[in-house]
């Protein structure tokens, strides 16, 4: 790894720890748009009215809050919680809100993993070409997923327990690393390093995108982006976007 690569890696870690050390919403702590702290837990979300029911863990008292009255961090926390995902009405799988949510759930990991593959290939195999990363990701993950499914089916038909599934996961990871090494024209050891490296880079990028963009970019712009492309299309929020953070 040359000096430029080492410098870029150090900058990435500085940004990561800068984000990690920032102010975050603690478990059980929610805030309204005007800064009021709600020391409670979200227990239910009404998809039709966009009201979230908060329960105080000590007094068991409950109160309803509109998602329009919650600040950005609280909306993001609600969006990532199972309380919101369980709120979709029955038979709403093909609704535009559900399809948008499924699209985010599928597309986001794919983009992060491809970006992670490119970064891992750049640092480990010294390959800048993004098409190598796309090819390595598609080929390795298609092969790995097919192999994992085969082992799951094999485990279901036979009485082998979880051991055969663990073996399938390890074998799939090795096959994926072998395919990656072939795509990057490097050694198998480096293929293994790129495989695990792209998972680490994807996790770091995902954390920064979820919790760090409001530290790296103007918070109001980040909030407006989430309102327009995440909260409103998935049904967590309705009505005209509210300005502020």
Overview of this protein structure:
- By secondary structure, the protein is mainly α.
- The protein has a domain at 93-236 and 240-244.
- It is 62% helix and 9% strand.
- The chain has helices at 3-20, 72-80, 82-85, 96-125, 130-157, 163-184, 188-211, 213-216, 219-231, and strands at residues 29-31, 37-39, 41-46, 51-55, 62-66.
- Strands 3-4-5 form a three-stranded antiparallel beta sheet, with no helix packed on it. Strands 1-2 form a two-stranded antiparallel ribbon.
- Helix 4 (96-125) packs across helix 7.
Short synopsis of the structure:
This protein is 62% helix and 9% strand. With 245 residues, it is mainly α. It has a domain at 93-236 and 240-244.
Rg (CA only): 22 Å
Strand order within the widest sheet? 3-4-5
Mean pLDDT: 84
Task: Return residue spans where pLDDT drops below 50 for at least 5 consecutive residues.
Answer: 1-27
Number of helices: 9
Q: What is the terminal-to-terminal distance?
A: 41 Å
Question: Quick one: overall form?
Answer: globular
Annotation, overall tally of beta strands:
5
**Biggest sheet record:** 3 strands, antiparallel
Structural class: mainly alpha
Write the element-wise H/E pattern from the N-terminal end onward. Answer: HEEEEEHHHHHHHH
Q: Work out the strand percent.
A: 5-15%
Fraction of residues in H or I helices: 55-70%
